[in-house]
Amino acid sequence: MERCHRHPNGTAASPEPTGIAHGAVLCRASLPFPLSPAADPAVISPQDPTLLIGSSLTATCTVSADLRLRAQDLYWTLNGRRLPAASYTALGPTTLSVALARLNGSRQQSGDNLVCHSRDGGILAGSCLYVGLPPEKPVNISCWSKNMKDLTCTWAPGTEGETFLHTNYTLKYKLRWYGRDNTCQEYHTAGPYSCHIPKDLALFTPYEIWVEASNRLGVAVSDVVMLDILDVVTTDPPSDVHVSRVGDLEDQLSVRWSSPPALKDFLFQAKYQIQYRVEDSSEWKVVDDVGNQTSCRLAGLRPGTVYFVQVRCNPFGIYGSKKAGIWSDWSNPTAASTPRSERTAGGCDPKGGEQNTTLRRELKQFFGWVKKHSYGCSNLSIKLYDQWRVWLQKSHKTRNQV
């Protein structure tokens, strides 16, 4: 990326069309003529202006009398491209101006290079043009804490975002009713618009948090967000997620995991969510009613199918806080497959008549009882149900083999 550089005497250096490398810091030794130590080859005015997009600019280059150069011996470049002679005006024997109309945003945040040259390509003087927009008010401030001692916040740089100028973002915070303003120091920890406060935060007292954006054209301040650390606690994803078969049951998998260790020393509860998908699908199904247990049975799955499973955690009730925390990221996917069905393709069941009707009635009653007494992944013991399902599968296989 090109940058607007400066000579030791204060003028800007630019990428040169005469073979000078982009990004090189140029000095008087590169000029093709001798100068006295105190002399400047030329002076550009205005020097390093800041302008709004769409503005026009007339710049002048006045060369030193020691150079024995005249206005007609000069030309201009912008970012290494020679500007047309039609935009030049000789304002005196040693002064040449250039007119720039309807300027676009700077190509680099360090400024565009406007350079005055002698006819043989030597650099006489340079200026950095900063053309852009004032910053917009930062929006969408969001914060979280992983150990109740730190805080990480992110934000968005307004609706447009791009100002074409280097824009500084400063996250500030203070206790709501007293205390001085504090400035966050660790930026870009969770993305380009983020900052991390690692320690020295108080509990049970709300904070005021805001973001200030500033560049050469102005300052914009976000709305103030008020939060209590206890209300924005999150955790790492649950660890040690294991997915396994449930005996010979063809349509079930068992999921187990460990509670996140970061909050083990604090009084809190946790609720969990599970999501799972078939190997060849991108659509996840979510189980919301897991509660605070660390195991769950997934049912109604396809036999002989690989499933990917993830778990996440939401801490709540920390030190009596009435607000739920923030969902963690999902754990890494864990894979397992259901047992393959051994039913013979094309087999048929004998018509059982009354026996078949009785079985259907019993099944309806049984599933009604399960639905009434179990909610999602409850701790209800279903050993008897498992045994019954295994017996049912075996009876199907026996009938199909006959």
Automatic annotation (TrEMBL):
Query: Which chain regions cross the lipid bilayer?
Result: none
A GO molecular function held by the record: cytokine receptor activity
For this UniProt record, the keywords arranged alphabetically read as follows: Disulfide bond, Glycoprotein, Immunoglobulin domain, Membrane, Phosphoprotein, Receptor, Repeat, Secreted, Signal, Transmembrane, Transmembrane helix
Q: Which residues form the Ig-like domain?
A: 41-116
- Residue ranges of the region described as Disordered: 330-355
**Which ranges carry the Fibronectin type-III domain?**
137-232, 237-341
Q: Which family does it belong to?
A: Belongs to the type I cytokine receptor family. Type 3 subfamily.
> This chain belongs to which protein, by name?
Cytokine receptor-like factor 1
The source organism is Bambusicola thoracicus (Chinese bamboo-partridge)
